[in-house]
Specification:
The chain is mainly α. The protein has one domain. Helix content is 75%, strand content 0%. The chain is built from 5 helices and no strands. Helix 1 packs antiparallel against helix 3, helix 1 packs antiparallel against helix 5 and helix 4 runs antiparallel to helix 5. The longest helix has 38 residues.
């Protein structure tokens, strides 16, 4: 067993790693809550308010992409650990696998649904376009995929803390 890393560089990289994980948590919570709010508005037949319209403003969700910082700083932590931790550790592999599944959910379901909803929300606000089933389906897909991503990120964080 190697000595636990205690260098200032390791500590700074660890803080960055955790900061990106917290940012990922915040963005996934925001996505899930906002999609849920949109679903409620759509069910009630009400108008899409200013806050929802701001969230669904067209463009890339760069804050959501902050999750990509997690493995970048994770690999740096492995390099700075001087053998205390390795890619062969079960908890490291488990965290990496959890991250890969989370990215597949985000890139495959969450962000595409969000992009489609951006277009739909603009159309709803501009012309009062009737809400189609595809808009409801996208809002549900966004909510469920964000919740799934959130569960996966929490699971990965638990693995990193517990290090079984």
């Amino acid at each position: 067993m190697h000595q636990q890393p205690d260098s200032p560089a390791f500590d700074i990289v660890l803080i960055a790693h955790v900061a990106f994980a917290v940012a990922g948590l915040a963005t996934l919570v925001a996505s899930a809550v906002t999609a849920s709010r949109l679903r409620t508005v759509l069910r009630g037949g009400g108008a899409v308010g200013e806050a929802l319209a701001r969230y669904f403003r067209p463009g890339v969700n760069w804050a959501g992409r902050s999750i990509y910082g997690i493995p970048v700083f994770g690999f740096l932590l492995l390099a700075l650990s001087h053998g205390a931790y390795s890619l062969g550790d079960g908890w490291v592999l488990g965290g990496l696998l959890t991250f890969v599944v989370m990215v597949l959910v985000a890139e495959g379901v969450l962000w595409p649904a969000e992009r489609r909803l951006q277009v739909s929300v603009v159309a709803l606000r501009q012309g009062g376009t009737p809400v189609g089933e595809e808009v409801r389906r996208d809002a549900r897909a966004m909510m469920l995929s964000a919740t799934t991503g959130l569960v996966l990120l929490v699971l990965g964080a638990v693995l990193m803390v517990v290090q079984p």
